[in-house]
Amino acid sequence: MVTVDSRLKWNDTGTDLIQGKQYRYRATGSWQDWYIVCDANGYSRWMLWLFGWMRRVPVAHWFQLIGVVDKAMSHPIRMGIEGTFTAPASGRLWVFANDAAFAYGNNTGTIELQVWPD
């Protein structure tokens, strides 16, 4: 289990992935974007739709848990509280709360994440 800090742009999971292999994950807890509390599924607000392009992964929710291999943003893994994914490449899994790159300073809270081979 690894603690994912919402204030960090990169959280090292300590998990090395193998391309094409399937993995399971579970994320528990909550974190907070300024005053909005959510879980690893993140949140959406109609009043923020104009700013969606500012998220590091624009197609994912604000504060959704995102995984990438070796910090490469080319194939982000949209995670949440529980599920599976197939590793898009081999390498180290890094995760973060999906926020605007300049806005991590007002984030608080952590999520506990478990990742294991399926």
The CATH architecture can be given as Sandwich
Radius of gyration, whole Å: 13 Å
Q: Biggest β-sheet: count, sense, barrel?
A: 5 strands, antiparallel
The best one-word shape is globular
Question: Share of helix among residues?
Answer: under 10%
* Strands, count: 9
CATH class: Mainly Beta
What percentage of amino acids are in beta strands?
A: over 45%
Structural class: mainly beta
Low-confidence stretches: none
Would you give the CATH topology?
Jelly Rolls
List the total number of helices. Answer: 0
- First-residue to last-residue Cα separation: 16 Å
Average the pLDDT over all residues and give the rounded result: 95
What is the domain total for the residues?
1
Topology:
Layout: E1 2-5, E2 11-17, E3 22-33, E4 36-38, E5 65-69, E6 72-78, E7 82-86, E8 91-97, E9 107-117
Antiparallel strand pairs: 1-9, 2-8, 3-4, 3-7, 3-9, 5-6, 5-8
Task: Write up what this structure looks like.
- It is a single chain.
- The chain is mostly beta strands and 118 residues long.
- The chain has a single domain, classed as Sandwich (Jelly Rolls).
- The protein is 0% helix and 52% strand.
- Strands 1, 3, 4, 7 and 9 form a five-stranded antiparallel β-sheet that branches.
- Strand 5 and strand 6 form a beta hairpin.
- The radius of gyration is 13 Å and the shape is globular.
